[in-house]
Design a protein that fits this description.
Elements: E1 4-7, H1 17-30, H2 37-43, H3 48-58, H4 67-85, H5 97-106, E2 110-113, H6 120-127, E3 135-136, H7 150-159, E4 166-170, H8 173-181, E5 185-189, H9 191-194, E6 200-202, H10 210-217
Parallel strand pairs: 1-2, 1-4, 2-3, 4-5, 5-6
Helix pairs in contact: 1-4, 3-4
The protein binds 6-O-phosphono-beta-D-glucopyranose and magnesium ion (MG).
6-O-phosphono-beta-D-glucopyranose is lined by residues 9-10, 17, 20, 43-48, 51, 78, 115-119, 172.
């Protein structure tokens, strides 16, 4: 029986995925790395340093920069990203998610956040929904990023529930793989998530409700 939910943030609760993509695209261009929609999809859910390494590899630059130079590139991307998220307000919560968070609270489910982003607490405060979650996994404590299951396992421990009692929500292929690896039920949103064959799938957040989830679980 499902008793809780582990939420990815970027691309699930709010559309910050587009700001990450914009900031990485700009950095890639400045490093002469060609951008593609496919690269954009692959970077979803991936930690800051892993994302930079994937971009450098895409351009054949994996051995061209020192660790200090790479840290500077990552800081440059984050500065751009942080500037883009300053204007977020509760109006930037994706369609249906305010209602879904209210519905699960009303029905007695527990929720935690499994975001790879070090900016997650800032974003949750700006959206005004910090209090909807029992807790947030601190990505600085992780040994492995998504698709490793570690972050969802920790988000489940915060809920004090067994994996079989949890549904994880993700928009990224790497994230769906991580949820499945943690033994939780994977709910994927959008085309990038579909690649990893989630247990439950919705094209858009506005379709997510307890009733619509139940329909797919019993299908
Ligand atoms: C994930 C995003 O939530 O967080 C990725 O999907 C991002 O695109 C990752 O790279 C790390 O975020 P941050 O804010 O710590 O650089
Ligand atoms: Mg995401």
């Amino acid at each position: 029986e499902i008793k809780g939910f582990t939420f990815d943030l970027d691309g699930v609760i709010t559309d910050t995925a587009k700001f990450h993509e914009q900031a990485w695209h700009d950095l890639a261009t400045s490093l002469n790395v060609p951008w593609s929609a496919e690269l954009g999809r692959q970077l979803k859910g991936i930690s800051r340093m892993d994302s930079l390494n994937m971009i450098l590899a895409e351009g054949g630059h994996e051995n061209d920069y020192t660790d200090d130079e790479k840290a500077a590139f990552a800081a440059q991307k984050n500065q751009h990203y942080v500037a883009l998220i300053q204007a977020l307000t509760p109006a930037d919560i994706l369609p249906g998610m305010t209602e879904f968070l209210a519905e699960i609270k009303r029905e007695g489910y527990f929720a935690s956040v499994a975001s790879a982003s070090k900016n997650a607490p800032t974003i949750l405060k700006k959206l005004g929904i910090m209090a909807d979650f029992v807790g947030i996994v601190d990505p600085a404590t992780l040994s492995h990023g998504k698709p490793d299951p570690e972050i969802f396992t920790k988000a489940g421990e915060i809920l004090k529930l067994q994996p079989t009692q949890i549904i994880g929500l993700e928009d990224a292929s790497a994230g769906v793989q991580a949820i499945k690896g943690a033994g939780q039920t994977a709910l994927g949103i959008g085309t990038a998530a579909k690649d990893a064959q989630p247990d439950i799938w919705f094209a858009e957040t506005k379709e997510i409700s307890l009733a619509n989830i139940a329909k797919q679980m019993n299908a």
